[in-house]
Write a structure and sequence with these properties.
Blueprint (H helix, E strand, L loop, with lengths): L5 H10 L6 E10 L2 E6 L8 E4 H4 L5 H4 L5 E10 L4 E5 L1 H4 L1 H8 L6 E9 L3 E6 L12 E4 L20 E5 L2 E3 L4 E3 L9 H8 L5 E10 L2 E7 L2 E6 L20 E10 L4 E5 L9
Parallel strand pairs: 3-5, 8-11, 14-16
Antiparallel strand pairs: 1-2, 1-4, 2-3, 4-5, 6-7, 6-9, 7-8, 10-11, 12-13, 12-15, 13-14, 15-16
Length: about 280
């Protein structure tokens, strides 16, 4: 009988690992993408990988790791098929912050103050827990999670210094952030609209946007619908032979209400009756 192969031994070694485990090892290679680690207990080859963003929230891979260095890191993923374990050194570099963020569960409510408004989202300085080593706040609200309603800029929804309460979405281990959907704590106007509207309803609305594929019309509190070109819009956004402009008040017919994807489709004319 032949001996156990290296692949079988490595698979058995990795199968015993669980996300959240603390593992130690020696750095064997450093690249701009991260570092390879030979883990204690399996010296044949490096099975551990720490991505550059999981090495430190404050520096690059080459700046915070060197070949031969001993490191401790948390397991964040195990890939048995590829024979790898993904590790985060940020967990041991910032143990207090990591433990704080790891303690939350989906829909836990967190409160804080808007610390900064950026082009990609809004940072929130939370009332509790440690501060972030790099960012102005531990909480982050991405732009799509700010509001149910359409807005042009984040400043249309919040302002620096404003207090907010958000539902915890998840722990972004790459950046050390609590992802916070602000809109989750507020009523969704689309669902309120859908409760009272039906296909075939005739409504009046205001044209808000003209786009290549149709016209957006505001028909209620925070609710816009789309008139697609194929559904009665002409070259300039109106019905055949008719043009519309942003700000125009027009009559529309509800043709489809998609609750799951929060989409409302409209027409400038009633749908044709089904054949007998």
């Amino acid at each position: 009988m032949g001996g156990v192969s290296d692949e079988e031994l490595s698979r058995e070694f990795l199968a015993a690992m669980r996300v959240g485990d603390l593992r130690e090892g020696t750095v064997t290679e450093v690249t701009r993408h991260g570092v390879a680690v030979t883990l204690d207990g399996f010296a044949a080859r490096p099975l551990g990988l720490v991505g550059s963003l999981d090495l430190s929230w404050a520096g690059s891979a080459r700046a915070v790791a060197r070949v031969g260095e001993r490191i401790a890191a948390r397991v964040i993923g195990v890939d048995l098929d590829r024979g790898r374990v993904w590790l985060a050194r940020t967990a041991t570099e910032n143990p207090e912050l990591w433990a704080f963020l790891d303690s939350f569960r989906t829909d836990d409510l967190l409160s804080g103050r808007i610390a900064s408004i950026e082009r990609f989202g809004v940072f929130v300085a939370l009332d509790e827990g440690p501060s972030h080593p790099v960012f102005p706040g531990v909480g982050l609200i991405t732009l799509p999670e700010l509001s149910w309603r359409h807005f042009e800029a984040a400043t249309d929804v919040v302002r620096v210094g404003e207090r907010v309460t958000c539902a915890f979405l998840d722990f972004d281990t790459t950046n050390g952030e609590a992802r916070l959907p602000l809109r989750a704590t507020r009523p969704d106007p689309f669902q309120t609209f859908a409760d009272s509207a039906s296909v075939g309803d005739v409504l009046r609305g205001r044209v808000t946007r003209l786009v290549p594929f149709g016209v957006f019309v505001h028909v209620g509190d925070g609710t816009e619908g789309l008139i697609e070109r194929r559904n009665g819009t002409g070259p300039s956004g109106g019905a055949p032979g008719e043009s519309v402009r942003v700000g125009d008040e027009i009559a529309v017919v509800v043709t489809e209400i998609d609750r799951e994807r929060r989409r409302l489709f409209l027409s400038r004319r009633p749908a044709s009756p089904p054949p007998d």
